[in-house]
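Fold this: Acetyltransferase, gnat family
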Amino acid sequence: MYNGKLVRLRAYEKNDLEIARKFVNDPEVKKYLIPGIPFPLRVDDEEKWYNSLNPFGRGEYSFAIERIEDGKYIGGCGINKVDWKNSVAEVGIFLGKPYWNKGYGTDAMRVLVNFIFNEMNINKVKLEVFSFNERAIRSYEKVGFKIEGALRGRYLEMVNIIM
């Protein structure tokens, strides 16, 4: 477990899956996560994803986000891809809508980035975010991400670089 001021990053547990699926299937949450048709995630899809988690795997790590105050599951974040040769990790995050605008996402991302730099010895963290997701962009900037490039009409690519 990795603690921030408001949240803790921990391994996913099977009992997180139903609430995670409800969060991700919320149309307002989904519009910020994936392009295209927001087809609902099925129970089987969530279970396949959970069963594929491997902490000894290829550099992909998923963390459940829980509030420190009560241990309540509020979302997830993780490392989606690692380029070990160039020392770059790509990350992502989502929170259930009831937990937006309370500092949880910023705290979780700060904990995740610290984990990547300090535990994995990675030099660059990047993420992609839709340009219309201004709330997330502000949060990422608080953590230290800078906009490095944009694909017109799709999303921004933001990166956090440590020298």
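DSSP finds five helices and eight strands in the chain. The two ends are 26 Å apart (CA to CA).
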